[in-house]
Predict the structure.
Amino acid sequence: MIVLGSGVIGLTTAIRLQEAGFAPRLLTRDRPEATTSAVAAAVWYPYRAYPAHRVLPWSRRTLEVCYDLAADPASGVSLIPFVDLFDRPTPPPAWRTAVRAFRRARPDERPAGYVDGFVAEVPLIETPVHLPYLVDRFEAGGGTIEVVPGGVTDLAALAASAGLVVHCTGLGARRLVPDPSVYPIRGQVVRVTNPGLTHALADDTGPLAISYVIPRRGDVILGGTAQDGVWDRTPDPETTREILRKARLLEPRLADAAVLEARVGLRPGRPTVRLEAERLPGGGTVIHNYGHGGAGFTLAWGCADEVVALVRAHHARPA
Ligand SMILES: Cc1cc2nc3c(=O)[nH]c(=O)nc-3n(C[C@H](O)[C@H](O)[C@H](O)COP(=O)(O)OP(=O)(O)OC[C@H]3O[C@@H](n4cnc5c(N)ncnc54)[C@H](O)[C@@H]3O)c2cc1C
């Protein structure tokens, strides 16, 4: 059995398969630190991932796992108050029942111009710590990450020879499957020093949209953009200035924070997450697990558990 891809989706899936008694090989074009996953901050927040009736259970499951991981500092997961801001009265989101300590934001928690908001305690998944943690867990389970320079080019041939491929290539699926419904959602972020912030803030729809502030142990990630269909991975200096301007309006204590770097990641957009098994005419089965949009860290463990169920349903047995 092969898992393809070493972003958060591939790593999490490979770990769950190991825990179920399988011994997957993990092939990847890029190592984890060079993936889209490495650019995210990231917080648990179901964003730009569909359909809602599947995303919500996957998110809930991932939330449970993250609450457990937060007990282990080595995982890079902790819990953070997250303030979601609105410039008009807004009904609570569907995920309110899943998270701990969900409540309306008090007036003193809302910057000027925001009349509504929600506060929840959500997992903060610090990717520079969490991705190496996942790699360590996978390697401790007997796995190794095998880099295929240039990436795999023939999924059908790989499935025919391996029998079962669990396919987690994110945006790579566009060319590899090929699946033209997969598209980039370009996200630029700016990393700055942390002046002592402890709350995450976000405006997704209001006057400063899209703007978010995510404090981590040693820095703060400021966002951002969500540009559909844009492939450019080079940070744009004008966008960096705009991100800083908005973030400083949202959180004035950022006024003197030093800029460390700007980065770009291409979220793997798709009308719906593709999580299903496909038997190929040439032999072999592919279990697809890609297209998680802006929510890969929010969905990873729930999707990984469903992959394990699909693998079992396809009669694969642990070696
Ligand atoms: C700026 C930004 C902020 C974000 N914030 C959040 C957040 O707060 N919360 C959240 O949940 N999500 C967030 N996301 C979204 C999240 O990062 C993605 O949903 C997630 O990283 C997707 O993971 P993935 O493993 O599917 O893809 P990737 O991380 O892109 O990994 C894909 C893997 O497949 C490999 N691959 C591709 N093609 C091939 C091939 N042909 N052969 C072999 N290997 C191949 C790649 O090398 C890579 O290892 C954010 C994203 C961005 C860009």
User: Anything to note?
Assistant: The longest strand covers residues 259-269. The CA atoms of residues 153 and 267 lie 21 Å apart. The chain has one domain: 2-313. The longest helix spans residues 52-69.
